[in-house]
Amino acid sequence: MRKIILILLTGLLWNNISFADLILNCKQEVRISNIDGVSETISMSKNWKIKITKTQIHVLGYESLYPSIMRKKEKESENIYYGEDNNDNEHNSIKIDIITGVGKFYLKSGTTVAKDILKCSN
Questions:
Q1: Terminal CA-to-CA distance of the chain, rounded, Å?
Q2: Cα 116 to Cα 11, 15, 32, 72, 104, distances in angstroms
Q3: What is the model's pLDDT at position 15?
Q4: Is there a domain that residue 6 lies in?
Q5: Of 19, 72, 75, 120, which residue is least crowded by CB atoms under 10 Å?
Q6: Degrees to nearest 5, angle at CA 84 with 118 and 87
């Protein structure tokens, strides 16, 4: 009887080690754009849904624009989620502070750099 209880208890503890996906609702109100060295702040009203998994960050509804943003654990901390996508033409990265809810989405294509400022909650 003790062996069965020990096996069940060990199984329950082992199955408890997992990472649940986190879905954040983010609101964007401003974009800071820099085109050929000329900076411009643009007012925007856009809602984003961001799903954070164990290995990736998905921008829900925009999977064709941001197909593979991989989490970079070496650039994360206890309070920060960070992911980036490098391909030949563009560089996208996202950084979200889970304590304050402030996120930044960096987009770089050629000589154009844009920074979207997000406010996120779950």
A1: 44
A2: 44, 38, 6, 20, 6
A3: 57
A4: no
A5: 19
A6: 125
Q: Could you tell me the pLDDT band of residue 89, with boundaries at 50, 70 and 90?
A: low
Supply 10's token pair: 């060990």
pLDDT tens digits, residue range 8-58? Answer: 556 655 554 556 789 999 999 899 998 888 899 999 889 999 999 999 999
Beta strands in the chain (DSSP E): 22-35, 38-52, 56-60, 69-71, 80-86, 90-97, 102-109, 112-121
Residue 39 located in a structural domain: yes
What single letter denotes the amino acid at residue 94?
I
What is the residue range of 81's domain? 19-121
